């Protein structure tokens, strides 16, 4: 059986930076499932027409086609019940809160900090699309939106609940990681792959958790290509 | 069997405003357990000597004495397994994140907004203790710390993940409330009982959830005394 994940790539085919695709990469590894992570670019809408969708991740698992990172996690728990990701209904409700925490508290703060790095990391053919869609979303130019000082200060405040949790446990989900960790960690992989910005101080319990997450599943995150690995790309 | 909860009261014995005690009041109601909520004041340390503790909530349940709101929730799940509050280990890990979210993201923002209302709501005999302990914690006078503008703007940002979750479900924990909801809602009861400040706009999905939470368990929160109910107390 072929299992294919359409995975956002940047200026180099090996540079994979979507926070949503990283959630899925970690979830697949958690289940012990192999996957071909096929490179896809923002403007390559045609390649996803078969899924009636225009964004990644898209997972093709045999005859199944699943879109949206959260729905993919749910699918994986249904199709491969061993090593649960989301857990029962109450556990899943709380995982959904963590999803929104990543998307609505962490990512906007990170975005403010790394937006110019992101523009630099996307494929040159995608840059017009990226600039136009993001400037529309932010209601201003990327240059006006960009403010590492504001972004880092916003991120510092947003990290407070995560700090509290990681002072008392190795993972958000307890003694070992599951969907709660992957949903949040994807956002950090996004920033890590496109930027060399230090988002979290060494002394922060979040930093120790990030190091553990990078090492999981054979160093899946640790060994991922970063923009600084692409010769001449980081500016 | 007697069941007693030592519960923080303010300028009126009926004014109960501790966010941590409210968590426990809701958790007990969730289990269908009766309790005598005995009024206690900050400076009445002697009354808690039997528990070797100096803060409320303290729950006395027959021969058991349990301190700390979160530990009381855990105790209730052990002693009364029907109608679980916290759930299994993974669900509980995520509930702990919600606890930190309430304490480290929501409450500091609310505190900034309602600190002078809080001072006004505590019992006159407790005010010196309250001012001194809080000024030490904040590193400045209550008057310097007080800034509804800053607090409300901080709260607006902190509510983002909660908004996302409550757009898709009636309760944080899903179709019906459990510990995730109570851990967070306690903070809103704290603000509601001591202040008439509008913290959340009518149009916000968080507002609709607050209304639902107030009505739960026979209107437990809705019928709670507020400072505005105490004649001549609100200024």
TrEMBL record, chains A, B:
One of its GO terms (biological process) is L-phenylalanine catabolic process. Gene3D superfamilies: 1.20.1050.10, Glutaredoxin. CDD domains: GST_N_etherase_LigE. InterPro entries: Glutathione-S-Trfase_C_sf, Glutathione_S-Trfase, Glutathione_S-Trfase_N, GST_UstS-like_C, Thioredoxin-like_sf. The keyword Hydrolase does not apply. It holds the Pfam family GST_N_3. Keywords: Transferase. The keyword Protease does not apply. Residues 8-84 form the GST N-terminal domain. GO terms for molecular function: glutathione transferase activity; maleylacetoacetate isomerase activity. Signal peptide: none annotated. This is Glutathione S-transferase. It comes from Halomonas campaniensis.
